[in-house]
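User: Run a structure prediction on this.
Assistant: Running it now.
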Amino acid sequence: MGVYKDIDSVPTKYRLQNHEPAYTGRDVWADYFEEKTAVFNAKSTRDRYEKAGRYLQNFMREAGRHHALAAPEHIERYLTGLRDGDIGRRNQSRKLQTVYFEYFQPLEGFYTWLQWHTEHPHVYHPVLMAVVEGGFTREVWDRKLEQNDKR
């Protein structure tokens, strides 16, 4: 999860939005995508990660923030928007399983990847913070736990 468990505990100087100038014009998702999908030859996996990244980038651009610098409230709004059909081409609602598999898995992986790459300033994980805060993100996390229990 990182050093901090909720956004209010993060000192202002460590908050991700402070790094916006360093990320301007950088497609960090593309770096993650290439590294992550290199181990998968399946076109379906590549397509899923590409779509998840595109939707995240569009959402964060509209929110006025770089896609690598989300706050927990962005994560909650993004996942809720996917569920409600406010994000994407078809404007149709999505089931919990779809939000989990198609979007949450790549999103959580992206922020975990950022934490493990020291060239990025990610001392906290906004996705996991959003889980702790509850709401729909917690429901998606609970689906993840259910899926893991089936293995």
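The radius of gyration is 15 Å.
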